Design the sequence.
């Protein structure tokens, strides 16, 4: 049986060929949150505006919306364009009944304006 690190390396190779398939395989084989965090960072760095939706679709359920919102906030200064792309798609994945998620998202949006 392969180690989780080996599985992660295979997922990374697969991502270069097919993002959705690579993320689907990641969801079904990886367990450690660390690998999903690495994938989200990779997605934010590399994805174009439409690909970010795919990354979020697969990674928000694994990491939780609060983590996903807080990661782009930490990237605000270094990668403002990538954060803007993520901000476009994040509302699609927000739980409108979760006041904390909504407030975090609004705060991130306010920081983008400043």
Sequence:
């Amino acid at each position: 049986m392969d180690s989780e690190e080996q599985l992660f390396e295979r997922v990374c190779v697969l991502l270069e060929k097919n993002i959705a398939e690579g993320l689907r395989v990641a969801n079904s084989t990886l367990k450690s949150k660390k690998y999903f965090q690495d994938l989200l960072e990779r997605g934010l760095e590399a994805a174009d505006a439409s690909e970010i939706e795919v990354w979020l679709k697969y990674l928000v359920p694994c990491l939780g919306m609060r983590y996903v919102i807080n990661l782009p906030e930490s990237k605000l200064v270094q990668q403002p364009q990538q954060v803007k792309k993520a901000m476009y798609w994040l509302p699609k994945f927000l739980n409108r009944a979760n006041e904390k998620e909504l407030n975090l998202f609004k705060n991130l949006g306010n920081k983008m304006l400043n």
